[in-house]
Amino acid sequence: MNKTDKIYVAGHRGLVGSAIVRNLETKGYVNVIGRTHKELDLTNQAMVRDFFEKEKPDVVVLAAAKVGGINANNTAPADFAYENMQIQCNVIDCCHKYKVKKLLFLGSTCIYPKMAPQPIPEDALLTGPLEETNEAYAIAKIAGLEMCKFYKRQYGDDFISCMPTNLYGPYDNYDLEGSHVMPAMIRKFHEAKVNHMPTVELWGTGTPLREFLYVDDMADACVFLLENYEGEQHVNIGTGKEVTIKELAETVQKAVGYEGKIVWNKAMPDGTPRKLTNVDKLHHLGWTHKVELEEGVAFAYQWFKENVDIARM
Ligand SMILES: NC(=O)C1=CN([C@@H]2O[C@H](COP(=O)(O)OP(=O)(O)OC[C@H]3O[C@@H](n4cnc5c(N)ncnc54)[C@H](OP(=O)(O)O)[C@@H]3O)[C@@H](O)[C@H]2O)C=CC1
Ligand SMILES: C[C@H]1O[C@H](OP(=O)(O)OP(=O)(O)OC[C@H]2O[C@@H](n3cnc4c(=O)[nH]c(N)nc43)[C@H](O)[C@@H]2O)[C@@H](O)[C@@H](O)C1=O
Q: 302-307 contacts: CB < 8 A, separation 24 or more?
């Protein structure tokens, strides 16, 4: 990539897209562009074609998607399948038609088989049944990863994919119905603290294991791959370290300074029991994460206090 390349970051206002924009700009890329969902609905094929025809980006990062936590995925599978497949098909095919020289597509570790070997190597994809709570999203994302592979095979397009673990940080989604666990915990403990509430309700049993990566680290890995990777197989992005949801709750509770009790709502799903990435490939390529969980949680909570107005949510 050249520093003057026109780089279109789809989803530039989201958790991941905004971090990728920050990272590109810090590294001296001077021509980064974005469009909001309102300005350009990526599910609309004609609009996507018009955009590519007019802008002709050199590089594309596809960080726009319908994204959500366990409850959103579990209760709106049709929307997750339809919107993500539409967005991917439109963007990937336009990247080919308009001769984009590099595309980065984002998968997610939740699209590996539910009972994949742990830590999960890249070649575990498509080797077993999926986790039920995010099956629709996984089917769509698997199709996206595979499409990048097929365009590379048939046309020689330089389309690469990565497989990030659970992410958190600035511009996360704090809507309690639709969010992932980290922003949900930050908001729940913060609200309980300021409102002097004796208990906080969390979901499931607290026993599932998850791996968390601070989003600025993830963005740094994405730009590293754009600059250094051309392989057909996707690359896992994670820390290689895991915690139980109970341990995560204790970490967030401590960072927020909430002294009440946690109540586990076992009527809510646990999701996949464990999903830890094997990050050997990324390490061998030369990239390792920097921000550990406690530090990342402190950064995320600070950002939340400075930027999120819960009274208006
Ligand atoms: N969050 C996580 O833990 C993980 C995320 N990922 C992947 O990273 C990518 C980004 O996720 P994340 O940043 O968390 O999600 P966010 O919800 O924070 O951001 C998604 C972005 O996509 C845009 N968008 C959604 N639908 C459309 C549409 N139809 N047309 C145009 N733009 C649209 C939104 O635009 P607008 O802001 O204008 O509404 C938003 O900026 C996804 O591919 C996701 O699968 C992978 C692993 C973990
Ligand atoms: C990144 C990944 O994210 C999703 O997978 P997930 O990791 O299962 O999602 P999650 O972050 O929402 O939950 C993680 C764990 O945490 C528990 N949990 C406790 N209390 C709350 C709570 O208050 N909110 C939420 N959301 N979860 C809670 C919850 O029960 C679960 O055991 C995929 O759908 C998929 O789309 C995907 O890509």
A: 303/169, 303/170, 304/174, 304/183, 304/186, 304/187, 304/190, 305/190, 307/170
In 10 A of CB 10, how many CB atoms? 24
Task: Output the six-digit token pair for 185.
Answer: 């915990």
Q: How far apart are CA 223 and CA 23, in angstroms?
A: 7
Return the active site residues: 137
pLDDT of residue 9: 98
Q: What pTM did the predictor assign?
A: 0.98
d(CA 287, CA 71): 33
One DSSP character per residue, 181-210 reads HHHHHHHHHHHHHHTT-SEEEEES-S--EE
How far apart CA 77 and CA 49 sit, in angstroms, is 27
How close is the Cα of 89 to the center of ligand 2, in Å? 27
- Where in 40-190 does DSSP place strands (E)? 59-62, 102-106, 159-164, 166-168
With a 6 Å cutoff on the Cβ, whether 208 touches ligand 2 is: yes
Whether the CB-CB separation of 128 and 116 falls below 8 Å is answered with yes
Pocket mutation for ligand 2, best pick of 16, 67, 70 (most atoms within 8 Å of C-beta): 70
* Residues 84, 107 contacting (CB under 8 angstroms): no
How many degrees, rounded to 5, is the angle at CA 305 between CA 204 and CA 38?
Answer: 80
Which tens digits make up the pLDDT trace of 30-82?
Answer: 999 999 999 999 999 999 999 999 999 999 999 999 999 999 999 999 999 99
Q: Is 145 annotated as a binding residue?
A: no
Task: Give the span between the Cα atoms of 127 and 117, in whole angstroms.
Answer: 10
Q: How far is the CA of 61 from the centre of ligand 1 (A)?
A: 11
Q: What is the ipTM of this complex?
A: 0.98
